[in-house]
Amino acid sequence: MVEFALHNAWLVPLLPALAFVIIIFLTKPWPALSGLVSVGGMLTSCFFASLAAYGVFTNHKYAEEPLVYATRWFSAGDLKIDVGIQLDPTSAMMIFMVTLVSSLIFIYATGYMKGDPGYSVFFSYLALFGSSMLLLVLSSNLLQMFVAWELVGLCSYLLIGFYTHKISAREAAKKAFVTCRVADFGLLLGILSLQIVFGTLNLTELAEKINNFDQYTTMGMMTLMAVLVFIGPIGKSGQFPLHVWLPDAMEGPTPVSALIHAATMVVAGVYLVGRMMFLFHEVPSAMELVAITGAFTALFAASIAITQREIKRILAYSTVSQLGYMMLALGVGSLTASMFHLWTHAFFKALMFLGAGSVLHALHDKADVWKMGGLIKKMPITGYTFMIGCLAIAGIPPFAGFWSKDEILLAAFDNGNYVLFTMAAITAFMTAFYMWRLFFLAFMGEEKAENHPHESPWNMTLPLVVLAFFATVGGLVGTPWAPVWGEWIFFGHPHHVEPNYLIMVGSVVLGMAGIYLAYTLYLADKEKARAHALAKQYRFLHNLSFNKFYIDEIYLWFNHSIVDGAARLFYLFDIYVVDGILINGIAAFTRLSGEGLRVAQTGRLQNYALVFFLGVLALAVVLAFTDPATAFGLMTGGAK
Amino acid sequence: MDGFPFLTAILLAPVAAALIMVFIPRDEGKLIKCIAAIGTFVSLALSLYVYFSYDQSVGGLQFVERIPWIRDLGVSWFMAVDGISLPMLLLTNLIGFAAVFASWNVNNRPREFFILFMLLVTGVMGTFIAHDLFIFLLFYEVVVIPIYIMVIIWGSSKRVTKEYAGMKLTIYLLIGSAFLLVGVIAMFMKSVGIMGHPDMSFTALAEAGKQLSAFDQKWLFGLMLFGFGSLISMWPFHSWSPDGYAGAPTAVSMIHAGVLKKIGGYGLIKIALVFMPLGAQFWAPVMAVLGVAGVTYAAFGALAQKDLKYIVGYSSVSHMGYVMLAIGSFNLIGINGAVANMFGHGVMAALFFSTIGFIYEKTHTRWIPDMGGLARQTPRLAVAFMLAAMASLGLPGLVTFIPEFTIFVGAFEVYGGLAVIGIAGIILTALYVLRAGANTLFGPPRDEYNHLEDIHGPEMVPLVVLGTVLVVGGLMPSLLFDMINSGAKDIMAHVADVLKIGGVL
Amino acid sequence: MLTLTVSLYHYLILSAVLFGIGLFGVLSKKNAISVLICIELMLNAININLVAFNKYMTPGDFVGQLFAIFVITVAAAEVGVGLAIIIAIYRNKLSVNLDDFDWLKW
Amino acid sequence: MELLNSISWVAVSFHTLAAVVVISALLVVFSRNIVHSVFWLAACFISLAGVFMTLNADFVAMVQVMVYAGAVCIMVVFAIMLIRRRDMGDTNLFNGQTVAAAGVVALVIMLSGFLSFKSGVVVPPGPVPVNQVDSIATAMLTKYVIPFEVAALLLLVALIGAIFLAKEVKADADSDS
To answer: Among partner residues A606, A617, A624, which is closest to D107 by beta-carbon distance?
Structure first.
């Protein structure tokens, strides 16, 4: 059975895809059935994924050499593209995590979406989304990965814009797609150059060839390719400066936000960079770029998150920030730490998003945390699981986030880049602060009279509990004392780090400090007077942060003024120059020359006779003064 | 092959349908449409059979029918298919069949409409399977007249009147064919000089082309480039395309954007490139530059549009820019991509135009600001629209992605930075397509469209047929690419052959 | 001393001059009848040529003279019809001024 | 006497007649009165008949006098009378393109004069038959009988046509209405 799962891992993405097809063509009129098909498909897929993961993690040879099986997809001349499955511990971990989290989110969605007119369609999209992500994870070929990558983008488009009647949803979906498209442009260029330089896109072959790349290309070209490839993840994983779509993506139904932010989509970028480590590893400057981008994004997003008011928006920026962490880990060369954080983050972020969904469900989509309060009393399961999530993300041991974050800090520290390390540390503090600010504001404190919260049904709380469990213990697979994780998921050689107690204690202290600060400002202080005073005192900084550093406005301006302006310019050029001057010009010339020559038609016989005789004269002159043979030649155009 | 003249049968099925229609009373609209559907379906079925029974391992010309016709000019009824003409033939029939159903609601003089339409389809098919230059031109001219009449009578006037649109379309086509004719006649005269006897068949002319001097090849290719270029709406000879499509009735837009345009690319590859490889080599950078210019320029142009048909019109110019870029890259991968992209874009454009046609039929507007929220009222139409839109922006998993990727590989290898500008077009494409889709389909539904009926019955056929091709072709690109590759590699082998000789000379 | 001779060339020159005068009249007179008259002058110039060539080139033959006679015949017919047309037009337009007869202009 | 003998009378008469022809032709064109033009035309025709005489073409000269000086001139005078005006002065004016016409005509004359000399026709010697009318009549009624008959037919058609064209149109207008 395990062998079967190992060698037929294509079933993992196929089953949800099948669910998509079944729902679209068969069960669309019966919502309950559609939900069942979708959840069933994902659960079966989860079952196979678990088996495959079990198979991989019980046989250490897969950590050295991945299990690859592929078939030719198409070929055009020298361009030969395969599709296939590449199973190694990294992808095995991913499919397990993705199918597990997705299954839970699907179950949650059966409760959350109840009664929605688009219930069936929603579940078909979800299934397709999961399927695309799994395909991406298992891809053995970069182009195949790109295909899945784009399909993930499509599904996110469909799901973010699921409430089609809402203009904000429509715009957010468009923004997500177009932003990712910009990034994909870079990625596509990167893939193209890889194909052209190395003549293959199969990951294993690429890895081999890049190992001794000097046979094929220069360092400059390698840097270029690495940077181009990295542009894709910048977009997909919401790194600065293309992070703008991610916070808006919460316009979709909450399960979608959870799916996008936790298990699928955004981690695709991190995963891709991880997959392409063999490329980045050869190019130190690209690695540096990855690390700097990651660290900056982490800090930047955290600084926005501390002033946001909408619950999902805070979570969204925290996602951006955490993704920055993962990138930072990759940039300092630790695939292990990055994947570890990806793993733990998936659980606690899914948990928090679903918790937020539960809150919104209860409060009828009232999203402002300032208008909530004391929810934990009426919604104990949601509240306590959410607290576990907050503990995890704040880096409090023994919760999952602590271990992975610690690993990243350690990796940054070991790398010797102390600026990046400091940035990461500050981010850790801020993360604890804003998450607990959210928690205190929404769940603790006084209840608001106008709210009538109630606990959500079982199919929404069950996933919360399961996720809370994983958010609690998920990090134990990679403690510094028992580095199981690093034994399996690594780049180059197994990753062993000596526990650094200073950093460990330091990060706990930072997390506690953040929580304490949030406590004093938002819970102990009933009137929140000091928080308001601080906001007033640093009005400029507050506004900057609250308005997300005006990046959206800049893009909007760019899009509306520059792109649309150029479009209008081109169009006017087309109408007035190409069409107006060139095309209609030729037409007008024809017409005008007709008009002009018309005047020659005077209607007076004697005019005609005059011209006629002029012609006769000319002809006579030609005939009189040239040799007869030449004259004949002239008149017949050279024909013999 | 086995005696039955499949290609002639494919060609004559619509003609037979048209002949039957002549004898049907004019008010029997349903019957006429059914006959049109049957006629195109027979062609479609036969061409599917031919497509799948073509032996790719052998390659070359198959299903050959050759009957001498005008001996003094070396003209013969030479019908055959290879890996390049087959996808185009199939495309024509797919779109022809779908277009009949997209015109199911034509009630103004249906008999004349469908007779002309059958002739149009026949003409287009003929250009793709004729392997005699004279017959090729003959079929090409057959195409022009029905289009003109159909635009003038059944078209619609928006920014420009339908008369203007029809005139523009026709004159462009004729100018293109004028360039072409000069080139063809010159080529023919030269070939007579080389071979010593007249022969208009592609095979003979390709052989004769080997001995053409480099200078002759250059100017002949130049003529054909501008002839075929204005057909494929090569920048800056593109401006007929948006206006023409906007004015034309749905079926004509479908056929025109879907396949007729492709005659330009097909001719460039199968005629100009094969006959004048040295000329092609000389002109390749020009084609690439014009291609990239077309991609970017038309993408920006599309971004500024508010009329759905104009958007698709400009977008098709933009996509044809990719084809030009691919031919300009002058390598096997590029040629593969060019042909495949023509196929993919054909299916996509046809689906797009049929969808827009239905939207227009139902809402009586194509003006985007007047629309919104149609996804709620007409979900199937929205599916068709989104499918076409996604294909237009080259979503992987649909038939348009792999060809574009192939083109990028082919072009990037040769042109580097220039290709990057072209590839950047995918961002703009996403922008305008999504904007159009979002503003038409999504957002708050409008009350005035609450009564709209979604597409149903025969109206579903374009969506089903073309949508299936979009998805199947996207998931199994080898179905398309193996075929094209079998044709393209012969062509490029021939080209390489000639270039070698040319190098020696 | 001045020798007064006559040769083919004299006739040809006379013919050319007469033709030119006739042509000038045709091109520059306003009156339709006058144009008709000038056409007669041109025809006569031709006749001179025909008869002169007859005498100097083929003295034993009379083709040139015959041709001249035919030309005269046709000219007579032409004058008849031409004048009839002018009269018919005059009845409609009350003018014989050719400048007024430009209905066929653009 | 020697002087007289040395003068070729043919030459003298040719030059005189030619002068008359040219002058009267010029007067045809330059007269401002159409009636005068017709008179000068008659003069021109008659002197042209003399020119034909110098070419030994007696029959043509006779036809010239009869048809041109007689018939044609009379016909033209009749036409002028039909289009009568009280004042016959300024009935024969030049139009706007006179200068251009003069230029073209000058070129035509120069060119044809030049070509006449350039052609270099060799005049073969030979006696001129005396009995011309006989010969012409014979030729016309034997070898050229068909053109002769066609010319007759042409005259008939021209006659009918002229009558039809010149006929009053009032009757037609009545019958039409």
So the answer is: A617
Consecutive H or E run containing B63: strand B62-70
Cβ-based burial of B306 (10 A; exposed 0-12, middle 13-18, buried ≥19): middle
Place of tokens 């549009």: B305
Q: Which residues of chain A does B426 touch, with a Cβ-Cβ cutoff of 8 Å?
A: 181, 184-185, 188
Q: Is residue C73 part of a domain?
A: yes
Is residue A308 scored above 70 in pLDDT?
yes
Instruction: Select the residue of A617, A620, A621 nearest D104 (Cβ to Cβ).
Output: A617
Looking up tokens 């062998």 gives A3
**Residue in the block written with tokens 């048209």:** B18
pLDDT at A629 over 80: no
Please check whether residue D111 touches A, CB under 8 A.
yes
Asked if the C-beta of D114 comes within 8 angstroms of chain A's C-beta atoms, the answer is: yes
pTM of the model: 0.80
| D107·A606 Cβ contact <8 A | no
Place of tokens 């991880």: A274
3 state DSSP class of A87: strand
Q: Which of A312, A306, A319, A220 shows the shortest CA–CA distance to A269?
A: A319
Task: Indicate the pLDDT class of residue B97, thresholds 50, 70 and 90.
Answer: very high
Asked if the Cβ–Cβ distance from C26 to A609 is below 8 Å, we say: yes
Query: Which residue ranges form the domains of chain D, and what is each CATH number?
Result: 2-92+131-176 (1.20.120.1200)
Nearest chain A residue to C104 by CA: give it: A603
C54 is in which domain, residue-wise?
A: 8-100
In a domain, C1, yes or no: no
Which CATH number covers residue C77?
A: 1.10.287.3510
pLDDT per residue as tens digits for the range A38-89: 888 888 888 888 888 888 888 777 777 888 888 888 888 788 888 888 888 8
**Residue C106 located in a structural domain:** no
The answer to whether chain B touches chain D by having 3 or more C-beta pairs less than 8 angstroms apart is no
Query: Looking at the 3D structure of chain C, how many domains does it have?
Result: 1
Q: How confident is the model at residue D4 (pLDDT cuts 50, 70, 90)?
A: low
Chain-chain contact of A624 with D95 (C-beta, under 8 angstroms): no
Task: Name chain D contacts of A600, Cβ cutoff 8 Å.
Answer: none
Euclidean distance between CA atoms C80 and D72, whole angstroms? 8
Give bridge partners of residue A69 from the DSSP assignment: A85
Residues of A in contact with B304 (CB under 8 A): 564, 567-568, 570-572
Neighbours of chain D (3+ CB pairs under 8 A): A, C
B163–chain A Cβ distance below 8 A for any pair: no
Cβ atoms of residues C51 and C68 within 8 Å: yes
**How many CB atoms are closer than 10 A to CB C88?**
17
B66: DSSP letter: E
Picking from A239, A407, A382, the residue whose alpha carbon sits closest to that of residue A322 is A239
Q: Confidence band (pLDDT; 50, 70, 90) for A639? A: very low
- Flag whether C44 is in a domain: yes
Which of C25, C63, C66 shows the shortest C-beta gap to D29?
Answer: C25
Contact A607 D111 (CB under 8 A): no
pLDDT of residue B480: 87
pLDDT confidence tier of residue D19, bands split at 50, 70 and 90? very high
Each as own residue / partner, the long-range contacts of residues C52-58 (CB below 8 Å, 24 or more positions apart, any chain) are: C52/C8, C52/C11, C52/C12, C52/C15, C52/D55, C53/C8, C54/D55, C54/D57, C55/D55, C55/D56, C55/D57, C55/D128, C56/C7, C56/C8, C56/D121, C56/D123, C57/C8, C57/D121, C57/D123, C57/D124
- Residue B207: Cβ-neighbour burial (10 angstroms; 0-12, 13-18, 19+): middle
Q: For residue A570, which residues of chain B lie inside 8 Å, CB to CB?
A: 297, 300-301, 303-304
Give CA–CA dist B153/A258, Å, rounded.
55
